[in-house]
Amino acid sequence: MIGVLPVRALVFDFDGLLVDTESAALHAWQETLSERGVAFPHALWTGWIGGVGTDFAMREHLAELIGHADAEAMREQWWTRHLALVDSAPLQPGVAGYLAEAVRLGLALAVASSATGDWVAAHLRRLGTHEAFTVVATGDRYAAKPAPDTYLGALDGLGIPAAQAVAFEDSPTGVAAAKAAGLHCVAVPNPVTAGLAAARVAAAHAVRDRAGAPRRTVARR
């Protein structure tokens, strides 16, 4: 049976969804590892996206391969490259208009991210979108995805039940977190996640090249 429920809130992932920081991270790591003659772990990278973080996971992986000291030195090289790329990264295409329309409709907005609060807040301020979000729930306060905690924290801060909220995610890990929290989830893969674990991204309630237009209702089975 299909019912129609009102939508009162939209909850967004951050990295790779609002801003394509994931392409920057990937390219910076590929360049850094190539210079050191270390193979890029493509299969592992797929599973890291959207969870505890590719930064932390890569450092742990490299520490096992080449030792902690060399791994940390490579991480510093990567970080410099990464910041140079991401500090000028714009909002993903269509995001600014989507947020403006959501505000016009009176929808509450939140971010649920496994990244740190400082990272997310700095980019939201840089892009002039921080005031649009009532709640920013991040991985330094809640368990990282695929645990549902960031979404549950966002909903708690908004005071809105999961049945009246829609999540937007770009990765299989994020989709799993949103669904575990009880939200209707729309997957919007980015250039990095578009070809990764397609079946798990498709586990979202809907998959879009772009998020479409905000709506006040959503059909639920």
List its traits:
6-stranded parallel sheet; 221 residues; alpha/beta; Rossmann fold; elongated
CATH superfamily of the largest domain: HAD superfamily/HAD-like
Proper CATH architecture of the largest domain: 3-Layer(aba) Sandwich
**Number of discrete domains:** 2
Low-pLDDT residue spans: 197-202
Strand content: 5-15%
Q: Kindly report the CATH topology of the largest domain.
A: Rossmann fold
What's the total number of strands? 8
User: What is the CATH C-level name of the largest domain?
Assistant: Alpha Beta
- Number of DSSP helical runs: 9
* Radius of gyration of CA atoms, rounded to a whole number: 17 Å
Side-by-side strand order of the widest sheet: 4-3-2-5-6-7
Instruction: Calculate the mean pLDDT score and round it.
Output: 85
The secondary-structure element order is: EEHHHHHEHEHEHEHEE
Taken from the alpha-carbon principal axes, the silhouette is elongated
Query: What does the largest sheet look like?
Result: 6 strands, parallel
Compute the separation of the termini in Å: 6 Å
Helix content: 40-55%
Supply the helix-strand structural class: alpha/beta
Report on the architecture of this protein.
With 221 residues, this protein is of the alpha/beta class. Helix content is 44%, strand content 14%. It is built from nine helices and eight strands. α6 links the parallel β3 (108-112) and β4 (135-137). α1 crosses α4 and α3 runs antiparallel to α4.
